[in-house]
C-alpha cells in the first residue's frame, strides 16, 4: 500500500469521503487521491515522493507558484507580529487600497475569508439595498456553497449530478432563478417575467466551474444594460478570474463596470482571503453604516492580507500577463496538436491562463453543450497524465491553471506526458 493509500484509508474514517472538499476525492475520474507532502513553484510532491507538474494550483490561487520565497517571507513577517487581533490593522488598509487601484469599480469593499462568504454576503447586501428577494444565476455557474446559490451549480455539483443539494430548504432556493449562459434574450425574458422582484444577477464573467466557457461578444455588456433597465444589481463573481485573466480581472479585460464584484482565490495569495464590494451607495448598507449585517472573526486576517498583498505586487511586475498568455498558449496549442494527431475529438476553451479541454467535437458555449463531453474519456486522460507526473483538476468540468512558475521544462514535460498517454490510447 502506498502512503497516499494508507492516509486515504485513515482519512475516510473521520472525514466524509476522506477529504475536506468533495472534488479532491477523485470520484469523477476514478482512482484515489494523491496526498500532497509539499510544493514549490509549479511542482508538487506527494507523500510517496512522486513529483508532478501542477495545473490545479490550489484551484486557482497559486498564480505566482507554490511557496514563493517573497510570499513566504511576507507571511513569516506578519506571523511574527501576531496572527489575529480582532481589531483593524494597517495591512487591511494597504490591501483595500491595492485592490481598489486594481479594480476601481470596488469603491468600497469588505474582506472575508472565502469566496463562498463573499458571494453570500454580496447577495445579502444586494437584497438589502433593493428590498427585493429574487436572484438570477447561470445554469452551471458556481458561486460557492451558500444555500440559495447551489441550484444548477456546475463543477462539484455537476460532477455528481446533484440538482442543487440535499439539506437546502425549499424556501432558500425558491427565490433563485437560473438561466442559460450566453443567452441574453432568455435573461431579458426572465427579468420581464419577474417585474420589480429581481434583486440581482450574479455571474462568473468567464464561467470556469462548468469548464471554461467564455462570454459571447456583447453578452456581459448586455447584462449590465438589462440590470440598469430593471433596477437589478449586477454582481460579477471574479473569485476565479480576478487577477487571473488580467490584473484588473475580467472586468478590465472586457471593459465592464459592474455594480458589485466578488474576489477570492488569487487575492489571498494561497491563504484564506476574499473580498466583496462595489458601488459606495450599495456598500453603505452594511453594518456598522447600515442595516445589513455581516461580520467575521478572522476577516482581514493579517497573514492572508500579507500573502495577498505580496502576490499582487508580484503580479504587477512588467510582462507578467504576457508571460502567462504565452505559456498557456504553448501548452494548449501543444495539447491540441497531440490530441488531433491521435484522432481524439476535443474542444479547448481558454482565456489567458485558465483553460479546459472538453472531450467532444462541438463548440462549448454553455452548460448544456459542456455536458456533452465524454467524461469517461476525460477520466482515462486524467489518470494517464497523473501516472506520467502531471496533476490536472480531477473533473472534466473544471479549469486548469497555468502560473508564472510554469516554464519551458514544465510545458515540455506536460506535452511529453500527453503524447505518451494519447499513444497508449484513451
Ligand atoms: C471557487 C469559487 C467560489 C467559492 O470560493 P471558496 O473560497 O471555495 O468558497 C465562488 N465563486 C467562484 C467563481 C469560484 O471559482
Indicate the low-confidence ranges by residue numbers. none
CATH topology of the largest domain: Aspartate Aminotransferase, domain 2
Count every beta strand, where a strand is a DSSP E run of 2 or more residues.
Answer: 14
Number of domains: 2
Biggest sheet, spatial arrangement of strands: 4-10-9-8-7-5-6
Helix and strand succession? HEEEHHEHEHHEHEHEHEEHHHEEHHEEH
**What's the CATH class label of the largest domain?**
Alpha Beta
Which class do the helix and strand fractions yield? alpha/beta
Cα(first) to Cα(last) distance is 26 Å
Features of this protein?
single chain, alpha/beta, Aspartate Aminotransferase, domain 1, Aspartate Aminotransferase, domain 2, 2 domains, seven-stranded mixed beta sheet, four-stranded mixed beta sheet, 15 helices, globular, binds pyridoxal-5'-phosphate
Quick synopsis:
Helix content is 39%, strand content 15%. The protein has helices at residues 3-14, 69-80, 90-102, 115-130, 155-160, 170-174, 184-193, 219-230, 249-254, 280-283, 302-315, 320-341, 367-370, 375-387, 408-424, and strands at 36-40, 43-46, 51-54, 108-112, 134-138, 176-179, 198-203, 233-238, 260-263, 274-278, 347-351, 354-358, 390-391, 400-401.
Amino acid at each position: 500500500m502506498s502512503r497516499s493509500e494508507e492516509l486515504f484509508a485513515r482519512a475516510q474514517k473521520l472525514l466524509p469521503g476522506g477529504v475536506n472538499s468533495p472534488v479532491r476525492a477523485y470520484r469523477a475520474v476514478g482512482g484515489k487521491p494523491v496526498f500532497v507532502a509539499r510544493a514549490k513553484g509549479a511542482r508538487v510532491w506527494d507523500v510517496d515522493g512522486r513529483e508532478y507538474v501542477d495545473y490545479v494550483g490550489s484551484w486557482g490561487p497559486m498564480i505566482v507558484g507554490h511557496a514563493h520565497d517573497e510570499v513566504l517571507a511576507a507571511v513569516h513577517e506578519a506571523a511574527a507580529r501576531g496572527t489575529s487581533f480582532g481589531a483593524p490593522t494597517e495591512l487591511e488598509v494597504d490591501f483595500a487600497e491595492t485592490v481598489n487601484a486594481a479594480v476601481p469599480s470596488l469603491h468600497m469593499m469588505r474582506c472575508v475569508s472565502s469566496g463562498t462568504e463573499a458571494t453570500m454576503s454580496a447577495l445579502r447586501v444586494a437584497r438589502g439595498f433593493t428590498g427585493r428577494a429574487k436572484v438570477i444565476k447561470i445554469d452551471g455557474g458556481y458561486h460557492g456553497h451558500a444555500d440559495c446559490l447551489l441550484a444548477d451549480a456546475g463543477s462539484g455539483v455537476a460532477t455528481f449530478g446533484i440538482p442543487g443539494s440535499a439539506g437546502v430548504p425549499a424556501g432558500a432556493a425558491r427565490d433563485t432563478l437560473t438561466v442559460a449562459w450566453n443567452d441574453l434574450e432568455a435573461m431579458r425574458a426572465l427579468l420581464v417575467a419577474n417585474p420589480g422582484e429581481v434583486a440581482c444577477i450574479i455571474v462568473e464573467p468567464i464561467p470556469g466551474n462548468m469548464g471554461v466557457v467564455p462570454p459571447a461578444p456583447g453578452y456581459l455588456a448586455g447584462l449590465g444594460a438589462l440590470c440598469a433597465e430593471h433596477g437589478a444589481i449586477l454582481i460579477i463573481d471574479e473569485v476565479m478570474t480576478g487577477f487571473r485573466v488580467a490584473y484588473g480581472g475580467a472586468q478590465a479585460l472586457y471593459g465592464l463596470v459592474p455594480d458589485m464584484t466578488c474576489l477570492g482565490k488569487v487575492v489571498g495569495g494561497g491563504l484564506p482571503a476574499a473580498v466583496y464590494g462595489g458601488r459606495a451607495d450599495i456598500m453603505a448598507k452594511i453594518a456598522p453604516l447600515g442595516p445589513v449585517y455581516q461580520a467575521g472573526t478572522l476577516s482581514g486576517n493579517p497573514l492572508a492580507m500579507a500573502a495577498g498583498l505580496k502576490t499582487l505586487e508580484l503580479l504587477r511586475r512588467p510582462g507578467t500577463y504576457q508571460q502567462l498568455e504565452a505559456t498557456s498558449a504553448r501548452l494548449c496549442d501543444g495539447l491540441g496538436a497531440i490530441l488531433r494527431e491521435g484522432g481524439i475529438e476535443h474542444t479547448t476553451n481558454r482565456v489567458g491562463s485558465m483553460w479546459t479541454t472538453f472531450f467532444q467535437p462541438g463548440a462549448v458555449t454553455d452548460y448544456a453543450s459542456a455536458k456533452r463531453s465524454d467524461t469517461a474519456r476525460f477520466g482515462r486522460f486524467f489518470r494517464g497524465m497523473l501516472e506520467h507526473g502531471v496533476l490536472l483538476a480531477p473533473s472534466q468540468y473544471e479549469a486548469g491553471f497555468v502560473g508564472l512558475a510554469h516554464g519551458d521544462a514544465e510545458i515540455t514535460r506536460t506535452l511529453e506526458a500527453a503524447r505518451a498517454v494519447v499513444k497508449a490510447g484513451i
